[in-house]
Write a structure and sequence with these properties.
Elements lengths: L18 E3 L1 H10 L3 E7 L5 H12 L4 E4 L1 H8 L7 E5 L7 H11 L4 E5 L5 H14 L3 E5 L8 H6 L9 E4 L2 H10 L3 E5 L5 E2 L9 E5 L8 H5 L3 E4 L11 H20 L7
Parallel strand pairs: 2-3, 5-6, 5-10, 6-7, 8-10, 8-11, 9-11
Antiparallel strand pairs: 1-4, 2-4
Helix pairs in contact: 1-2, 5-9
């Protein structure tokens, strides 16, 4: 189960206040224990799931305000908000050292995900949703040249992003060096690699690197990977979407770990 950061972070680890919208993202935010400033609800909306959201907000003393649908459209920038939006507290990024400490506290062979300049927020959100489902102990993203943890990311992740420990690295290469010093084996996804993804050993502390949608992993980042693997492509398309590639690689790593542990696959 992913660890949720509740301790206050420094200003350098904080992003802008997000607007979280949609039934599931708002619910996950409220359940995560993160601070919320206000819950907006569309006038006239009635539903059992809304009653749950309002109860959660009330329990945390989050003000609830009913507003016209047009106000929610303007606030969220979309009509697909399901009638609810929440102004969250500052999005907190973890310090890398703290993330690693917590990762090893959860699992002696943690699994991390490193995103190298993925710019599409929908890709980032989909990747974070898969990462949380796969039980990764943390995600590392670059501070520059990548999509931030925005409302679109939170929406696409279906709220999973708030349950993940996410560190933001000013220098991704230096972050990989820190991972190696901590005992991680860094494995990059690269369609030019000689080794297929299922030929790789993922049994130890592992950090999986997923590259940019168009250019893949940057050359300098690639050179700091301990191994490169590729997903075999049998059709005419040269590569998979970044979020799909991340999902395939994550579950290949999980399958390898379960197989080597000689334990049966979990039922759910």
């Amino acid at each position: 189960m992913a660890y949720v950061a509740t301790a206050p972070m420094s200003a350098q680890q904080q992003d802008d206040r997000p607007i979280v919208f949609g039934r599931h993202p708002v619910r996950e935010w409220l359940l995560s224990g993160r601070r919320a400033e206000k819950l907006y609800v569309r006038e006239g909306l009635r539903s059992p799931w809304l009653a749950e959201l309002e109860a959660l907000a009330s329990a945390q003393r989050v003000p609830i305000q009913r507003v016209p649908g047009a106000r929610l459209d303007s606030l969220t920038g979309t009509r697909h908000h399901q009638g609810v939006a929440l102004i969250g507290g500052l999005v907190a990024y973890w310090a890398l050292e703290t993330l690693l400490e917590q990762a090893f506290a959860q699992d002696p062979r943690p699994l991390l995900l490193v995103l190298d300049q993925i710019v599409d927020p929908h890709n980032v959100g989909a990747i974070l949703r898969t990462a949380e489902a796969a039980g990764v102990q943390g995600v590392i993203v670059p501070k520059h040249g990548a999509a931030p943890i925005s409302p679109a990311v939170l929406k696409t992740s279906a709220g999973a992003a708030v349950h993940l420990a996410i560190a933001r690295a000013t220098n991704l290469v230096r972050a990989l060096q820190t991972l190696k010093q901590a005992g991680f084996w860094v494995i990059g996804a690269d369609q030019g690699a000689d080794r297929l993804l299922w030929e790789q050993d993922y049994s130890g502390p592992t950090a999986l690197v997923i590259g940019n949608e168009g250019k893949g992993i940057r050359p300098l980042v690639r050179r700091h990977c301990d191994a490169l693997v590729r997903i075999p492509m049998r059709g005419q398309v040269a590569s998979l979407n970044a979020s799909v590639a991340a999902a395939v690689l994550l579950y290949a790593a999980l399958e390898d770990r379960w197989r080597q542990s000689l334990k049966p696959y979990p039922a759910a």
